[in-house]
Structures are given as C-alpha cells and as structure tokens.
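4.2 Preliminary Data

To establish feasibility before requesting continued support, the project team ran the inverse folding procedure on a target of 361 residues. The structure was first converted into the token representation described in Section 3, and no sequence information of any kind was made available to the design step. The complete token record follows.
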C-alpha cells in the first residue's frame, strides 16, 4: 500500500491488519511514521515513489497493490512521474491487481449534476482534476492492452479522523475565525465516512476479476452543506458561521479590489497562489513541515491581532455548496457488494471523539 501513513491509508491498514488472510506492506516516504505503523503490526518500507528503483524493490513479491499516494504539495508533473514509476514496477514484477484511489472530481458534471460512472469525464479543470484524469486514462489504456489488472475507486467528500480537508481544516477555521456560507442554499454534501471508503478498498482488492472498472464511493443519506458545517460548529460550541447572499459572495471573485479585500480578511489564501505555493514547497523541502506550520501560526496570530479572520468561499466552493447533484453508488453495490454502513449522524459522532482527543486544543 502506497500512501499508507495518510488519512485513508492509516485507517485502511488498521482494518486490514485485523482481517485474517491479509499480510500488509506499507510504503511511506517519512521514516518518522515507522513507529506509528509498527504498533499496528505491518511491514514498512521507506521509499519515495519518485525513486524508480526504490518503488520497484518495494512492490516486488506482492500480490495486490493499493495506491493511495498523492502529494498535494507537489506539481502534476511530479505526481504523474510517481504514478508512472509505480505502474511500471507493477507490470515489471507481475502484480496481480492494482487498486487505485482517484476522486469524484474527474467527472465534468461534478458537483452541479447527478453523476455516475457513465457521466462525461476528463474535460480540463484544476491541476488536481487534470492529474487524476491523466492517471485514470493511463490505467484504462493499460487495462485495454492487458498490461495490468486494475480497478479505480472514486470517493466523494471523505470526512472523519485525520481528514485534513473535511475535518481538520473545518475545525481550524471555525475555531480561528468566521466561515462564510451562501445564504438560503441547501446544496447536497455527498459525504462518506472514512471507514466506508476503507471497506470499499478491501472489496475492490478482493475482486481482481473486475479489471478496468471504476467505482464511485459515497455514503448514504447525504446531509446538506449547512448541516455538515453546523454539526461541527455546534459541537465546538462556536457561533462561527455567517450566511451571506450568494450573489454578494460571487462579487469578491470579479474584481481585483474585491480579491484584495478577501486576502486581507484571510491572508492564508495567498498560499493557494502558484508562485507563493512554489516558494512554500521549496521552504518545506529545505526546512521541513515544522517551519511551514510555524509560519502559518505566525500569520494567523498577526491577523487575529488586527481583526477577525474571515474564510470566504472561493468560486469552486460556492459551486459545491450550492450544488444539488447526487453521486450514484449503484455500480459499486452491484459489482463489489459495497454497502455504506455509517450514515452522517453516526460518522460525525465518531469524528467528535477525534476532535476532542486530537484537535480542540
């Protein structure tokens, strides 16, 4: 398993380690995570997927490879090179089945329309979408040529313990400032608890005959976006959500003056600007994550001293929060036997234990 120390990977390892018949080898980049994985009882190999020889040695002798690796801090070119190294290693060493984790974002109708595996796919979009699409196309091409039996899972909004995007970041924003949402919108949040995604991965790994297939993985009875955010807000005992008319919120993305107003309200937005992101990535590689975390804390502290941090939604966020599109999981149900076990109420209750134990301070 690549990406074994990440959000989904670490939970999947716990589940696999408890299952009879699985012997798990975890591939990680960060040697400091070895002890964390050793307590679960899995064999760990430290290598970078950019290291062609290293990843080849890591997969040699394995039966199935589950690929969860994606570096959000690196470029599309880097992520594609890492995947190519892994894919070539799998074909070279006779891996029986590759299970790759992609994303619902590959579909062109996401998030505004209803989506199934037959939906329009692959129009140019964000760098993240373009990377995921390119990898899926490579997997499909390899399957058609008979190079490697592969399956692709496409999770939706994955939340739960250690979800940096849909749990950690939400909590951090609610505790440090005001989160702005569009008023009067009941957009559908296609949320799925991390354990359901892990279960789907186990099922996919156990169905090597479904080569070239892709499966959307989402939860049952999705909440609305206001319900999603308010669950966190109320549990934290905060009053940190402000609702503003969607037409007003669209304004900050139309003119440079309004964009500057947004940046002044939340300077952390600068980290998403490519030149700044490239500099931060260089600093991260030279000085380590601790330096970037310290810089982030300093910026937040400085902003708090001059006024509240306001987290305005970007254009993509607004589209997501207003969307009514639903994601079909019928194919995963029929072909894999996937049934989501944890609805949002149960999943959020499990998440609150993590918030109290790890995040609140």
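Position-by-position output of the design step:
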């Amino acid at each position: 398993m690549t990406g074994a120390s990440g959000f989904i990977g670490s939970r999947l390892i716990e589940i696999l380690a408890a299952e009879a018949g699985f012997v798990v080898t975890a591939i990680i980049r960060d040697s400091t995570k070895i002890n964390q994985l050793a307590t679960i009882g899995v064999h760990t190999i430290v290598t970078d997927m950019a290291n062609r020889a290293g990843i080849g040695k890591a997969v040699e002798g394995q039966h199935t490879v589950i690929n969860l690796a994606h570096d959000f801090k690196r470029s599309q070119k880097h992520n594609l090179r890492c995947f190519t190294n892994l894919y070539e290693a799998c074909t070279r060493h006779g891996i029986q089945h590759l299970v790759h984790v992609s994303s619902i974002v590959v579909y062109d109708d996401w998030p505004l329309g209803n989506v199934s595996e037959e939906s329009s796919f692959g129009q140019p979009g964000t760098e993240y979408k373009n990377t995921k699409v390119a990898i899926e196309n490579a997997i499909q091409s390899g399957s058609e040529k008979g190079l490697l039996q592969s399956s692709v899972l496409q999770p939706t909004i994955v939340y739960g313990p250690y979800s940096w995007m849909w749990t950690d970041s939400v909590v951090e924003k609610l505790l440090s400032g005001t989160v702005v949402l569009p008023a009067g919108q009941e957009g559908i949040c296609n949320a799925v608890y991390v354990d359901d995604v892990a279960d789907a991965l186990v099922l996919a790994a156990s169905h090597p005959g479904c080569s070239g297939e892709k499966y959307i993985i989402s939860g049952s009875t999705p909440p609305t976006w206001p319900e999603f955010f308010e669950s966190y807000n109320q549990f934290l005992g905060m009053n940190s959500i402000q609702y503003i008319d969607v037409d007003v919120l669209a304004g900050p993305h139309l003119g440079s003056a309004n964009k500057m107003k947004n940046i002044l309200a939340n300077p952390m937005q600068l980290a998403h600007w490519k030149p700044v992101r490239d500099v931060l990535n260089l600093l991260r590689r030279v000085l380590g994550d601790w330096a970037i975390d310290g810089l982030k804390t300093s910026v937040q502290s400085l902003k708090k001293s001059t006024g509240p941090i306001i987290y305005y939604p970007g254009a993509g966020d607004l589209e997501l929060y207003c969307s009514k599109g639903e994601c079909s999981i019928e194919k995963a149900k029929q072909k894999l036997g996937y049934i989501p076990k944890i609805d949002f109420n149960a999943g959020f209750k499990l998440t609150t234990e993590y918030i109290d134990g790890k995040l609140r301070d």
